[in-house]
Amino acid sequence: MEKWCRECHACGARKGPKTRTKVRLQRYDVGALLERMALDILGPFPVTTKGNRRSVHEVTVWTPSEMLFGRTPRLPFDILFRRPNDTPSSPNEYLNNLEARLERVHAFAGKRIKLSSE
């Protein structure tokens, strides 16, 4: 009886497929800088070992603000309740530090993207 029920075309048509397969995750190659980014839709995330609450790009290992602006954004909470960051004494010193930091970040991100696409 069980064999007949399992092999019956009318019964099988009503029940539908027994299992649904899922497609395996595949690798996605990145072609350009910041082509793929992550969003904090689940946040706020816990603080990481670097004191970071923002999503880090999978390949570059930097947050979008660090890649674009050379620094981590200051949130209103940071401004109100934390000590101010050490600021350079002159605008020229600030610009030199910013330029050096951006060059380091972009060089590192470029290497990571190249390694990821290989």
TrEMBL record:
Superkingdom, natural source: Eukaryota
Name used for this protein in its record: Uncharacterized protein
